[in-house]
Design goal:
Belongs to the peptidase M24A family. Methionine aminopeptidase eukaryotic type 2 subfamily. By secondary structure, the chain is of the alpha+beta class. It has ten helices and 22 strands. It has two domains: 282 residues, Creatinase/methionine aminopeptidase superfamily (Creatine Amidinohydrolase); 62 residues, Orthogonal Bundle (Arc Repressor Mutant, subunit A), CATH 1.10.10.10. The structure holds ligand HZT and manganese (II) ion (MN) (2 copies). The site of one manganese (II) ion has 5 residues, from strand 9. Ligand HZT binds next to strand 6, strand 13, strand 15 and strand 17.
């Protein structure tokens, strides 16, 4: 194994200028968060205003010359805060798509534009989280190779996310208000979702593996949920293409007043128009019928609406203001998953009962969960890094008492291969914004 561990040392190598939009850094800001490009014209203006010859000599108070600073660039691995790269909170927009049919009027409608404007903090936080997501996954796509351990992959991604959204006024007292939105999913082959390594996991990524990388980033509780699939053997290309096309079809179909069941039908139609040949055997690509997309609420990864990925008569409509994770899964197996294997993912239930806990380890663990995650999903590694140990009895007790929900790995039949692509979309009053869209997917 030519395992190349991710390094914590900041390489001198600079990557793409993050100040993507020309003019973004020229806007005047009031928050003191400007990129201080020194302004030499100030001195020239002083010269021009100098008293004419013969007048009493006035001692010039020259400001010391400031060095011209280049706009800050991202490092490799990414460790420069997104807030520093985009002064005045000018984070890049996602893909903005105009509504169609009866909702065409929304883009220019005065009232809808007003509603959009009063929601600007929501949008700023979402765009901030989405840019961190794009930069962390760019690192992942470039660096993850067969031979890496899943633990090194998870740490590489999570160290990036935390550095990108961390610090700089984003902490209120003790509460961290930006960071991982949920544990990084690293689900391989027949495992479709909710796998991340627990402590001591020595699993190594293999050349013929198909790995779903599902990353959650939140800023002030606005969670971007977006995933892609990595494979190194080109034989999986049609599988990955099927799922990418199916997700894009779902993203395209989504909109205000659209019925979620109709989206499922379109996703399935696109997904199941593909087949994939593996070792001389041809497999139809199936939509995994018991997995679906979902709404996202503030500090809560799953809201009350689902988006099926097979034909369904679910008449639930998408509405203005909804945030959806549009995710589709394709499989060479049964197209049906079940829970199996050691649990890594957990989350406190938002409707958690106020039980009087008998077990002191459960009581103290609940305090740790409340303080560090609230209702955001977490994994055992996140407890380990907080210095917690011997917490399993307490954790299982919280699950038994219905306070914490466990999310076991979701797997199709052994020997099968599954793929996933996922985007978070905002149904803004004026436009649909595919907030997690990048050049990659
Ligand atoms: C649960 C726990 C997590 C939400 C979907 C998902 C990853 O399968 C309604 C529909 C993170 C996310 C979730 F730690 N799940 N998206 N990305 N997993 S889900 C779900 O439980 S609830 C689908
Ligand atoms: Mn996800
Ligand atoms: Mn999701």
């Amino acid at each position: 194994m030519a395992a190349q561990a991710p390094t914590d040392e900041l390489s001198k190598l600079k990557v793409a200028d993050a100040n993507g939009k020309p003019g973004a850094s020229t806007e005047t800001g009031t928050n003191g968060n400007l990129n201080h490009d020194s302004d030499d014209s100030e001195d020239e203006a002083e010269d021009a205003a100098a008293p004419a010859a013969g007048a009493a000599k006035k001692k010039k108070k020259r400001k010391p010359k400031k060095k011209k600073k280049a706009p800050t660039q991202q490092t490799d691995p990414p460790r420069v805060q997104i807030a520093q790269l985009f002064p005045n909170k000018n984070y890049p927009a996602g893909e903005e798509v105009e509504y169609v049919n009866e909702n065409r009027y929304r883009t220019t409608n005065e009232e809808k534009r007003h509603l959009d404007n009063i929601n600007s903090e929501f949008l700023t936080d979402y765009r901030h989280a989405a840019e961190a997501h794009r930069q962390a996954r760019q690192w992942a796509q470039k660096n993850i190779k067969p031979g890496w351990t899943l633990t090194d992959i998870a740490n590489g991604i999570e160290d990036s996310v935390r550095a990108l959204v961390g610090h700089s006024g984003l902490e209120e007292g003790d509460a961290i208000i930006a960071g991982m939105g949920f544990p990084t999913g690293l689900s391989i082959n027949h495992c479709a979702a909710h796998y991340t390594p627990n402590a001591g996991n020595k699993m190594v990524l293999q050349e013929d593996d198909v790995m779903k990388v599902d990353i959650g980033v939140h800023v002030n509780g606005r969670i971007v949920d977006s995933a892609f699939t990595l494979a190194f053997n080109p034989r999986y290309d049609p599988l990955l293409e099927a799922v990418k096309a199916a997700t894009n079809a779902g993203v395209k179909e989504a909109g205000i007043d659209v019925r979620v069941g109709d989206i499922g039908g379109i996703i399935q139609e696109v997904m199941e128009s593909y087949e994939v040949e593996i070792n001389g055997q041809t497999f139809p690509v199936k939509s995994i019928r018991n997995l679906n997309g979902h709404t996202i609420n503030h500090y809560s990864i799953h809201g009350s609406k689902s988006v099926p990925i097979v034909k369904s008569n679910d008449q639930t409509k998408m509405e203005e203001g909804d945030v959806f994770a549009i995710e589709t899964f394709g499989s060479t197996g049964n197209g049906y998953v079940h829970e199996e294997g050691e649990v890594s993912h957990y989350a406190k239930r938002s409707d958690a009962p106020k039980a009087d806990l008998r077990l002191s380890s459960a009581k103290s663990l609940l305090n740790v969960i409340n303080k560090n995650f609230g209702t955001l999903p977490f994994c055992r590694r996140y407890l380990d890094r907080l210095g917690q140990d011997k917490y399993l009895l307490g954790l299982n007790n919280l699950v038994s008492n219905g306070i914490v929900e466990s999310y076991p790995p979701l797997v199709d039949k052994k020997g099968s291969y599954t793929a996933q692509f996922e985007h978070t979309i905002l149904l803004r009053p004026t436009v649909k914004e595919v907030i997690s869209r990048g050049e990659d997917f």
